[in-house]
Amino acid sequence: MTYNNLLSEIKDQVLHLTINRESKLNALNKETLAELADAISFAASNENVRGVLLTGAGEKAFVAGADISEFSSFNAEQGEQLALQGQANVFDAIENCPKPVIAAINGFALGGGLELAMACHIRIAVSGAKLGLPEVSLGLIPGYGGTQRLTQLVGKGHAFEIIATADMITAERAAEIGLVNHVVAREELQAKALELLSKIITRAPLAVANAIVAVNAATDPQLNGYEVEIRAFGNCFNTEDFKEGVTAFMEKRKPVFKGK
Ligand code: COA
């Protein structure tokens, strides 16, 4: 896959995606969002991909937000469409991807950049990264799910403070409040993300996919998460991987999962 704003490479069953607009601090313009949507849809359906590592090019920014220059003259209807399409095609698609997606936050994660990281299943940040939702300083609020996902991750009090002050917080503070899972030195960022992904990849892929569905249901107001879990649990019994997992346990050997 060749993109204009995204580097993409499959290595050891992991799709490495790097947002590559370094001169604009990897800000998400329309084309980058379309490319991300395409790459995530590819990851979701391609058998050779078992996980995704998402990061930003360079050392300064993961993503410094949506590209402000593109929506500076929008009216209410256009603003709503921007949020609606972005959420469906990119942010919700990442959250619902049946393969684990890890955000490796290599620098500023602001606005749409933090929203992108929050749509991922796991976040790892370098020490020194700054995270925030500065939209109210532009006369806006977050529109790519940020008000919802931040509240789910850190609770209403911290979420409101971060959104309403527009302040950036450090990676260390983000870890304290549960916004990122791990903070590491810059040189360890990729290794830490790959350590987690390679462990998840050894587990039963359909079980991992069912776990994503069930965990996501916990924060979906349209769903009863317990009911979703019951169905997802039941689904696992229909898989070859369940039989392999149990047989391998009985035979005291490592399972070989096929994702079937
Ligand atoms: N949209 C469009 N362009 C952006 C951008 C964004 N969200 N964030 C950064 N850029 C561009 C800058 O316009 C600049 O481009 P230029 O060199 O053509 O002028 C380039 O990226 C470098 O950014 P700059 O502001 O010069 O870097 P800095 O080190 O002085 O500041 C930030 C870094 C992250 C503090 C600053 O870029 C910033 O506040 N960005 C916007 C963050 C934001 O509000 N995001 C939410 C959007 S809804």
What is the element string, with H for helices and E for strands? EEHEEHHEEHEEHHEHEHHHH
Calculate the mean pLDDT score and round it. 97
Number of domains: 2
Which small compounds were modeled alongside the protein?
Answer: coenzyme A
Strand content: 15-25%
Low-confidence stretches: none
Structural description of this entry:
A six-stranded mixed sheet has the order 1-2-3-5-7-10, sandwiched between helices. A four-stranded mixed sheet has the order 4-6-8-9. The chain contains eleven helices and ten strands. The mean pLDDT is 97. The chain is an alpha/beta fold and 260 residues long. It has two domains: 6-200, 2-enoyl-CoA Hydratase, Chain A, domain 1, CATH 3.90.226; 203-250, Lyase 2-enoyl-coa Hydratase, Chain  A, domain 2 (Orthogonal Bundle). The protein is 48% helix and 16% strand. The protein is globular, with a radius of gyration of 19 Å. The protein has helices at 30-45, 68-71, 76-95, 112-119, 146-154, 156-165, 171-176, 189-202, 205-217, 225-237, 240-250; strands spanning 6-11, 14-19, 51-56, 61-63, 101-105, 108-110, 122-126, 130-132, 169-170, 182-184. β2 (14-19), α1 and β3 (51-56) form a beta-alpha-beta unit. The longest helix has 20 residues, at 76-95. Coenzyme A is lined by residues 24-25, 27, 64-69, 108, 110-112, 134-135, 138.
Structural topology:
Blueprint: E1 6-11, E2 14-19, H1 30-45, E3 51-56, E4 61-63, H2 68-71, H3 76-95, E5 101-105, E6 108-110, H4 112-119, E7 122-126, E8 130-132, H5 146-154, H6 156-165, E9 169-170, H7 171-176, E10 182-184, H8 189-202, H9 205-217, H10 225-237, H11 240-250
Parallel strand pairs: 2-3, 3-5, 4-6, 5-7, 6-8, 7-10
Antiparallel strand pairs: 1-2, 8-9
Helix pairs in contact: 1-3, 4-5, 5-6, 9-10
Coenzyme A is lined by residues 24-25, 27, 64-69, 108, 110-112, 134-135, 138.
